[in-house]
Amino acid sequence: MVSSNSRRAVVVGAGIGGLTAAVALRRTGWHVEVVERAAALGEVGAAVSIAPNAVKALRAIGLGPAFTAAACALDGLESRTRGGRRITGVDAALLRDRYGAGLYNTHRAALHASLLDALGEDAVRTGCAATGAETIGDRAAVALDGPDGPVRLEADLVVAADGVRSRLRADHFPAHPGPAYAGYTVWRGLVPADAAARIGVPSLMSETWGRGSRFGHAPIGDGRAYWYAFETAPAGAEHEHRAAALVARFADWHHPVPSLIAATPDEALLRGDVYYMDEPLPSFTAGRIAFLGDAAHAVTPDIGQGACLAIEDAVVLAAALAAAPVPDALRAYDAARRPRTQELARQSGRIGRMLMNPNRIAAGLRDASAAVLPASVAMKTIADIYEWTPPPLAPVEAGV
């Protein structure tokens, strides 16, 4: 085990991956400062699903109880046709028995708050956009454009968790084409608690498959319900930002799909085109800079692993740095994370293309094939994701 009594890291990005990395590094004795381009930390986004692999990672950094107290434990996963016929399903008890943790859904802000509580808001410097990072000998430095002008921070390590449009990734891998459009846009909505109670939302992550469109929903643990809708569309297409416009397009889908959309205030509606890393990065490190989460391996939402893989990254990075000097630790991090995350990005993109096929015959074959697929085959994909177990992450003692 390596002493990190005086080691310092700068984490670029205060999203879920960046904050998890900061908490994990703090737990192993690092001094960590997080820089975030947003002017303030507030409630952003909609909901996030946390699968067994990420639940185990959160437990590894001591956040298991805080997370599960704020999240909604789901009873399982299912898929349905737009008419309501069940195609596939997995019970949460099976997930807990096989993989050591259940499936949860929560508002992003609740998970964000748990991470900030563990870290301390004084560790986050807001209003600072990273404009570059470099390695100089055995040190790293990040240049920031702050509220009072340019700032330069030096550290032993820079963690680039600055998202799918990562500025730092573009700087260090200029030949990489960047994220690719997945071919569809996603709407996300939150239904107020009183309306969700009237409608009745089962405690499942339920997804309905249409032709060139899909709809999913689940409770988030505070009485509200979360839903998402995927629609095939050209990149950058104009969309009317009103729930009423979506209601018309999903009017003939089974209950509670139209009711959930209709009960969503327009101000609780978010939309964004889906981009992912179709072309894999050649490395997740550059000198003393480690790339993490969407900055390294953005996946489509089709396997529910975007936030989960970022959480995994954070714990693996901290464990590697606790066990070896920075250069060796970064090589170990890259070797551990790149094969898994890039394979899951590939799988996710393939699954998305299959599920979003607008052809009527192809969609019918998809539903029929999924319905008769042996359980052992269906569970293989889940097992590849959920069986992951975090490495040991013990606090580092000074002088060791």
Characterise this structure:
There is one protein chain. With 400 residues, this protein is α/β, with parallel strands linked by helices. The chain has a domain at 8-74 and 105-177 and 278-353: 3-Layer(bba) Sandwich (FAD/NAD(P)-binding domain), CATH 3.50.50. It has helices at residues 16-27, 52-60, 64-70, 92-99, 108-119, 167-172, 193-199, 243-249, 257-262, 294-297, 306-323, 326-355, 360-372, 375-386, and strands at 8-12, 31-36, 47-50, 72-73, 76-81, 86-91, 104-107, 124-126, 129-136, 139-146, 149-155, 157-160, 180-191, 205-209, 213-219, 225-232, 269-276, 285-286, 289-291. Helix 1 packs parallel to helix 11 (306-323) and helix 11 (306-323) runs antiparallel to helix 12. It is globular and about 60 Å long.
Would you kindly provide a brief summary of this structure?
Helix content is 38%, strand content 27%.
Keywords:
400 residues; disordered C terminus; 7-stranded mixed β-sheet; 6-stranded mixed β-sheet; 19 strands; alpha/beta; FAD/NAD(P)-binding domain
